[in-house]
Amino acid sequence: MNIAVLAKQVPDLVEGLEIDASGKALDPDSLRYILSETDDHALEEALLIKERVGGRVEVFSLEVGEVREALYAALAKGADRAVLAQTEGEVRLDNHTLARIFADLLGRGSYDLVLTGVRAIDDLDGSLGGLLAGYLGLPYVGLVRKVEIASDSATAIVEKEYPGSYAAELEVRLPAVLGIQAAEQPPRYVPVSRLRQVMKTAKVEVQDASLPEVLPVAVERLSQPEEGAGAAMLSGNPEEIARQIVDLLSERRLVG
Amino acid sequence: MTMGTFEAAPIPEKPGVLFPEIASAEDKFRTCLQCGVCTGGCPMGEVMDFAPRQAVKMLLDGRFGEVVESNTPWLCIACHTCATRCPRQLLISDSLFPALRAAVMAAGKPLDQDLQKALQNTYLYGNPMGESPRKRAEWAKTAGVPVPIVSQIKRPVDVLWIVECYPSFEPRNQEISRKLARILNALGVDFAILGHEERCMGDCEWLAGERGLFEMLIERNIEILSKYRFKQILMTDPHSYRTLRNVYPALGGRFVVKHVVQFLAERLSQLKPLLKKQMDVTVTYHDSCCLGRKTGHYDEPRALLQALPGVKLVEMIQNRESSLCCGGGATTIYLDRFIQDRVKDRLADRRVEQAAATKAEILAVACPFEPSRFEDAVKVTGQEGKLLVQDILELLAESMGLA
Amino acid sequence: MSQDVLVVAEHFRGRLNDVTFELLGKGREIAQALGGKLAVALLGHEVRSMASELGAAHLVYVADRAELREFIPDRYGAVVQIALKEAAPRLVLLGSTSMGLDLLSLLSARGGLPCLDNCTRLDARDGRVMVTSQIYGGKIFAEVVLPDQTTLVAVVPGTFAREAGQIAGAPEVRELALPTLLPEARTTFRKLIEPPPGDVDITKAPILVAVGRGIQNGENVPQAQELAELLGGAVCGSRPAIDQGWLPKTRQVGKSGMTVRPKLYLALGISGAPEHVEGMKQSEMIVAVNTDPKAPVFGVAHYGVVADALDLIPLLTEEVRRRALEKAG
């Protein structure tokens, strides 16, 4: 079972976001990058599949932020190969572009399953997995929370989430692309000492990828919500605030 | 009934022995008498699958794996009673338990998610809460007195105050930090803080079995500290105080380190005249594990409390070396749910009941993990309105009119 | 290409989802502004009767086949592509949902059509269509002018008013010309998994105390529980709170959890990411507590407080108790 995991680096919201002078993009200097959360789940699910049915897990990413560390962490967790795509010239980080680049890279190997996080915080133009499946002509299911490989190794049985905690059990003929919402267990922890060890001994492969010609959706303007816009903000010390809130509830006969 | 004061187990010089791979630890652990003093003093012994004495025996019998798979690794609250009393000076809480936890992690077994998040946050942001390091000095903006940041004032200072994570980010503790700033100001102390350059000094990571993260933090912190010139380091957090005092030197970070109770006790003659307000309260003092058993500061906090005018100091049934841990030993604040599911009464509740038994009106503490734990326990045990939890610094500030 | 708007209807377990009506209401407005018509693509099995609920539209393309009984991304995608060829719309509207997002991406890649997700605002003026999408956990608004070609847009559920799409009407119903044999789907439906029986149905609670990452760890949930009980309500959480194991899945509010409309939604330590907001924004009163003044939750809340939820919970509990005693005494 050859599994490819597509991993994206996204801006870390803890560090705050700033819009650049043009007003159309984020200021890269203000950004710190981390692995997209659902991609971490995709990797975890891939590793669980490998533990159950054997095979290889290969992780692909693009040269952004601290991506090398994320790739070493993937190797430390049990991935077999990490590939970093490098392109000449600046890459627009929209999903259509990424999907084209990954489609090119994946075409150089043979994979039964491609897993990627179903949504990332910077998704503007659709889901990376869905776009990739569209370009490769492969079946796709998004919002997956469980993947089981059938004994014939030719199909995967997946659970697709729906609102209200419903889910659909679907059978997908491989090869296929799955958009992972959550792995069956939380992404495992990599002790720092193991990470450092892997950084010394393992290798991240760099592969050249051509910059695709993709007509982007043009962003006119980025803006941030005004502080407290919408809500009537309460102020005072915590005791006063508690009283104000209970006053509001009392007015509506919700309490007291 | 006090047990007398045992010598705190000496922390060895070499880092390799600090956190030994389990194979080399076996040699040391082979000297174990199986006397059971560890289990006898362990507040969690009853609920562990394998209490300390038995865990050591199983290690020696080649059954380490069974202990790893049991609930034992995650129930140690790092109160260090075992390590303090062991006649062979075996570092049970300091090395056996971290090794057990490291083994769980190395096996890729799932961790308690709160603990995992805390470790990941510490790696990324230098604090377990996941706050941006840029916000580390936000608390100081409303201190009411100048709190200089050492990178900005660009001169040597007398005292570098390492604030630490909880006192920087946790609201109850931020209040205490502000009061200390005012106290230092009133004493005319020349101090500064690291601000956004400060990261966790390290303690939980070691206890959690994350040696790599622990060492990474220390290396980085030594680098930062080496940039500045100061005569001494001041800390309020007993856990990282112990680490800075006992562990950093072995990794190249040799500094004069003082806990705030020590620092202020040294200045008692200067402090006393400033303690103007009559307090007129009965106070009992809780010896925190790291400040007490691990570093031996039993007298200084008491001296400070007794300097407060109108204070009557009473002792709880377990005090000084035999003090009962609040249960918040560095990693266990993240393992509370795990522990709660397994114990009948929380340690903090037991401790508060001991405090109430002394008829004291105030339970004085000197560790950032304690105020909220004990305040919760005060509510749970029905002591609300009868017992107030106060950090020593809060009491001093009140008497100085700086509250 | 026409100036029409095509809405891809979404239904689940025999009922049209609310988002379909939200899209119809807005879609009709946009179509009018563009000078075009509003059409709907309705796929399924034995769904013709649903067409009568789609009165807001001028035209309903129906694809009613046994193979379309359940949502299969690739199969639905292939059929919607046929509808797109027939309708040649200016704008295609889908819900940013489990079904909609799959379709959005597949259609965009296979059809070479530009697409946009996370739409929370949509306007048409002078032949131009403008979309605002909320990304980065709701912290950034991105304004986009759609290109002058068929474009797919996925809209966050709860953005537009459902009522605007629930007007009576008699749309033309047209059978979509489908091949006798639909292209073989490599995905098949096996079964529906029901939600686990829950202790509390949070959709029925009049008051919800919701916890998010801001309460820091699971140990703080009992406090929130105490407050909820005092108020006669229940505790629920955002996805992170459930993922961390603090609450069971039945307590999850948001995209793949429950949609709730309580009298009071007290959001504690919740940032207000769109996936969560869509599940609670229709609450009668939303009071949000967060330490970040820029938290997106303040955009949807009626009242906001910049404070630490952990500070406020015990104070609120105390105050509620005090009021109750006062009233009794």
What features would you describe in this structure?
In chain A, 29% of the residues lie in helices and 28% in strands. By secondary structure, chain A is of the alpha/beta class. With 403 residues, chain B is an alpha/beta fold. Helices cover 43% and strands 9% of the residues of chain B. Chain B has helices at residues 15-18, 22-29, 37-41, 52-60, 64-69, 81-85, 92-106, 113-125, 150-153, 165-169, 171-186, 204-207, 211-225, 238-246, 260-266, 268-271, 299-307, 336-340, 347-357, 370-380, 392-399; strands at residues 157-162, 191-193, 230-235, 257-259, 281-285, 311-314, 362-365, 388-391. In chain B, strands 2-1-3-4 form a 4-stranded parallel sheet. In chain B, helix 11 (171-186) packs across helix 21 (392-399). Chain C has 2 domains: 5-175, HUPs (Rossmann fold), CATH 3.40.50; 202-328, 3-Layer(aba) Sandwich (Rossmann fold), CATH 3.40.50.1220. Helix content of chain C is 28%, strand content 28%. Chain C has a 9-stranded mixed sheet with strand order 9-8-7-10-6-1-4-5-11. In chain C, strands 14-13-15-16-17 form a 5-stranded parallel sheet. The longest helix of chain C has 20 residues, at 309-328. At the B-C interface, helix 8 and helix 18 of B face helix 8 of C. Strand 13 (232-234) of chain A pairs parallel with strand 17 (303-306) of chain C, so a sheet runs across the interface.
How would you summarize the topology of this molecule?
The complex is a heterotrimer of chains A (256), B (403) and C (329).
Chain A: E1 2-6, E2 9-11, E3 33-35, H1 37-53, E4 56-62, H2 67-77, E5 81-86, H3 95-106, E6 113-117, H4 128-136, E7 140-149, E8 155-162, E9 166-173, E10 176-180, H5 192-201, E11 205-208, E12 219-223, E13 232-234, H6 238-251
Parallel strand pairs in A: 1-4, 1-6, 4-5, 5-11, 6-10, 7-10
Antiparallel strand pairs in A: 2-3, 7-8, 8-9
Helix pairs in contact in A: 2-5, 3-4
Chain B: H1 15-18, H2 22-29, H3 37-41, H4 52-60, H5 64-69, H6 81-85, H7 92-106, H8 113-125, H9 150-153, E1 157-162, H10 165-169, H11 171-186, E2 191-193, H12 204-207, H13 211-225, E3 230-235, H14 238-246, E4 257-259, H15 260-266, H16 268-271, E5 281-285, H17 299-307, E6 311-314, H18 336-340, H19 347-357, E7 362-365, H20 370-380, E8 388-391, H21 392-399
Parallel strand pairs in B: 1-2, 1-3, 3-4, 5-6, 5-7, 7-8
Chain C: E1 5-8, E2 11-12, E3 15-16, H1 18-34, E4 38-44, E5 59-64, H2 73-87, E6 91-95, H3 98-111, E7 115-125, E8 128-135, E9 140-145, E10 151-155, E11 172-175, E12 187-193, E13 207-211, H4 221-230, E14 234-237, H5 239-243, E15 264-268, H6 274-280, E16 285-290, H7 297-300, E17 303-306, H8 309-328
Parallel strand pairs in C: 1-4, 1-6, 4-5, 5-11, 6-10, 7-10, 13-14, 13-15, 15-16, 16-17
Antiparallel strand pairs in C: 2-3, 7-8, 8-9
Helix pairs in contact in C: 2-3, 4-8
